[in-house]
Amino acid sequence: DAGVTQSPTHLIKTRGQHVTLRCSPISGHKSVSWYQQVLGQGPQFIFQYYEKEERGRGNFPDRFSARQFPNYSSELNVNALLLGDSALYLCASRGRGEYEQYFGPGTRLTVT
Amino acid sequence: AQSVTQPDIHITVSEGASLELRCNYSYGATPYLFWYVQSPGQGLQLLLKYFSGDTLVQGIKGFEAEFKRSQSSFNLRKPSVHWSDAAEYFCAVGKAAGNKLTFGGGTRVLVKP
Questions:
Q1: What is the pLDDT of residues B59-84, one digit of tens each?
Q2: Fewest C-beta atoms under 10 Å: which of A28, A31, A56, B6?
Q3: Distance, first Cα to last Cα, chain A
């Protein structure tokens, strides 16, 4: 079975632009979470969605938003990009009744 | 609020030697603890997890970890490291019913031949 997939792999944007990152969970997983990993640090929780509803939000500004689709894939949107948004964005999925999360390879976002 | 501390930023170990990575957590209830490994430019791979029961848990790639409630620790060990174990290791704590994971800052492991 395929693991968590994310697209694109790499992305370069300019300050002030908008970006959309995509994630497909493991088949059968209905929970998707997003994390931001700045270089040299551990991942920081951004959002969690379950059954298309937001179930958790980390300490990120309103420029960050997300949604989950009927097929349980998810998008992370970031508006008005800042240099500090440059990071590896990780998506993770979780199966029902499980506590462990399985991570995708990430999207490397560079803001110039 | 939950938090995780990994005191060692870098560890260098010779191939074939043993490895121990430290993790201390702060959490008000029974923690759900995880160790993940990340190779350069890659996502996170789950090595092992602890929810309850036996405090010594076995994971993939020959790793094990021991939960010590009295010390709020969940240290990762491997008896004999291989060059392929060079990577960054993250300890994380999660809630029982929630989905948010709180990660430590990571420990980068370098393996000398």
A1: 999 999 999 999 999 999 999 999 99
A2: A28
A3: 37
> Which chain A residues are closer than 8 Å to B99 by Cβ?
31, 33, 48, 50, 55-56, 94, 101
Cβ within 8 Å of B, A 60-99: 90, 92, 94, 99
Please report, as a single letter, which amino acid is at residue B84.
S
Overall average pLDDT of the B39-65 stretch: 91
The helix/strand count (H/E) of chain A reads as: 0, 11
Q: Answer whether residue A62 shows pLDDT above 80.
A: yes
- Report the half-sphere exposure of A66 (CA within 13 A, side-chain side): 31
Query: By CA distance, what is A59's nearest residue in B?
Result: B100
Determine contact, residues A98/A90, Cβ cutoff 8 Å. Answer: no
Please give the distance of CA A34 from its chain centroid, rounded to a whole number: 3
